[in-house]
Records
---
Amino acid sequence: MSAPVKRLKILVGCETSGIARRAFDRLGHDVWSCDLEAAEDGSNRHIRCDIRDGILHDGWDLLAVMHPPCTRLCRSGRRWMSGPGKWTPPKKLPKGRTLDSMLEEFELGVSVFTACWTAPIERIAIENPEMNDLARDRMPHDLPGPQLVQPFWFGEPAYKSTGWYLRNLRPLAPTNMLAEPERDSDEWKRWNKIHRMSPSAERARLRSRSFPGMMEAAALQWTGQALKQVAA
């Protein structure tokens, strides 16, 4: 009789959509999500909490952090934090914002990211754009560069560069690579709909949603690697 397959204990952090949680759950693992906000699907396997408040120490086999605060950490947000050089006054601020509020968001992003990366969990995947130099200066020394992937690698007709910072997990391999449309064609414009969204109260939430195809690949590949490591 063959030994039973281990059921991994997995935490999906900073997610309300349930897209990643459900992808891992379909493989039969013990999966929970957590966020300050409630789960959109009303799941009873979602914990409302600050991910920094102890849950990272609950004996997880794998941590996948989906949408930690990253607006001030990413390269595109650097111009709001500093002018030329490092930490010089920025030339301009977003309308209605103060530098103090921007710095508060920056510190929150650093705090959440570092808490997750330094958690006592053997396998970690954190979704975050490529960071600016100000953020990199505050990161743990063992943080690698991100693997940058696109949704169309996984059958999703869309452009959105997605960065994964990985510990003890291999980079994602494409599963259903789509042929890219001709630049400036109608299809190409549809693939860029995320970048072309009009300003709205929901824009940030919609832009940060996970792609089901990518998360199906992540769940299958990363749990497969984890199970091999556990069995070794």
---
Amino acid sequence: MPAYTLPDLTYDYSALEPYISGRIMELHHSKHHNAYVTGANTAIEQLEEARATGNLSAVNQLEKNLAFNLGGHINHTALWANMSPDAGGEPHGEIADAITEHFGSFAAFKAQFTAVGAGVQGSGWAILAWDSVGERLVIVQLYDHQGNLTLGMVPIVLLDCWEHAYYLDKLNVRADYIAAWWNLVNWEDANERLARAKTQLNGLIIPA
């Protein structure tokens, strides 16, 4: 049995139009995300074989392959839930209060997050994360799918800044893609992720 499977979307590929086209969503989910699922399962199988045979000469590369592909799978699984055809606008509930507390206002947060996403060099993500050590929200860049996110950071809202997320719609104009994406942010999902992050990780990284 494969360790990882491609999750179904809770909405149709075309449901996020006009902000993200159905064609982009179909390719992004069925091709790109599926490739990461396949890659993660392949890496798991190859690591099992390496352990069984005692041949660990390629273990470093296999671990990198697992991290890259598993990161891609996990990030995209969260991304799909982070977006909704009936979302966007300003946040509400606990996530709204936390954004105001840690960034001053939603407008200041939105400006910083937009700049972080636009400034990702090459392939990567912009992420609003819960820092379980500092007990605060922070905005970070994630390189590729797995680099530059420290332990104890729990992603709450993720924006895929890889060109495959927008190139068919926006060509190379990432700023237009980010502006459209704000209309799809599922703040209810963000509230649920924030609540889980606070419950599950506080005190676990650095014991009291």
---
Amino acid sequence: MAERVASGRLQQVPNALTVARFAAIPVFVVLLATADDGRSWPAAIVFGAAAATDQVDGWLARRWHVESRFGTVADPLADRLMIDTAVIGLFLHGRLPWAGLVLILSRDLLLVAGYKLFVPRGYELSVNIIGKAATWILYLSLALMLVTRAGATIPYTLFWIGLGLALLAAVAYLTGALRNPA
């Protein structure tokens, strides 16, 4: 089957989904901040919708051949901000240990700094499969934390697996950049 190329307004759908993910962050913050003990189905639904748009926007952009510079920068940034927001909120509700908070935020700061350092030098930052898996596992684990009782085992196990993969992906991005300077 031939690849479909979007025309007109459809070309803007992938970037619009990314922008919607940014717009969902304040809604998520309000829902989580007003949650009883950090448990909130409405916050989890907003968070899950953000996770779904992450996959849909990239898939549509590739399928319709409308990948953009905006999308390559904004899409992972929206993911990082949504996940970081959830991690901070869950930490403040006592649902996530400080080590998880520190490691996730440090990893994301490292990636932003690495991006600012390496991309202007010509390094092409493309998402690897480990990074994609880490993001999905983190989304899943955090969504489960939002709807389960504190201390439920599965969300925390998934969180640590996702965090380990996220750190591994960060190392892969940075070593790739160091090995292939422009």
